[in-house]
Design goal:
The chain is of the alpha/beta class. The chain has twelve helices and ten strands. It has a single domain, classed as Alpha-Beta Barrel (TIM Barrel), CATH 3.20.20.70. Helix 11 packs antiparallel against helix 12 (249-258). It starts with a helix and ends with a helix.
Amino acid sequence: MGWGIKNRLSRLIQPDGHCFFMPIDHGYFQGPTSCLEKPGETIRPLLPYFDALFVTRGVLRSCIDPAIDKPVILRISGGTSMVGKDLANEMITTSIEEVIRLNASAVGLSIFIGSDYEKQTLKNLSDTVNICENYGIPVMAVTAVGKELEKREARYLALCCRIAAELGAHVVKTYWCENFEKVIKGCPVPVVMAGGPKCETEREVFEFVYDGMQKGAIGLNLGRNVWQNPSPVGMAKALYAIIHEKANVETAVKIFNEK
């Protein structure tokens, strides 16, 4: 791994080896997502608690203050929508020149293992790694499942994460699941947990995040369960404590209730 990639990863992954990424890229396939209609306003009170922002170029350029003191992971795949035929039919949407112009610390793109577009999205990943290696830019692979949430089980996610690592991803974002240690054990690069659909209770979020951290995840890439919560700052504080301060679930609940 080259110096540039290591340097950029050091901005994303903190000295304790952990990270809390804040994704606000949902609009690239969902449109104006609830509580994310004005992304710049949504993240402003959350800035002290996350380590990097996962965002598309359009929202970054139009909604995010260029003086923001947070590294950016740029979403570079897309081309589908919730009303389209298949969310897996993605392409690369953003050039390496644009990544560099926007001073991104990393790029992120989805892969859809087991879909009709498996080969296409894995080629997207491989091509991106090939290009980004030339410029010292880390690549985060996102093990997406489209609308088929039942795929979120250990055997499938372990397969996805290992393939992403084998093709050169520097970090893999995947869902927490039962027997999550099987996913971590089979993946030779760092794994961050995705949030997935909004959970029913705050405790439910804290429990899966805590469990995943205990089983080897380095952190979290979670948005809706923070900024769609009635107390987004309380959620961000509590999750930060689990990730960076070794808080357990009970402590996280107390921090959330303090708000």
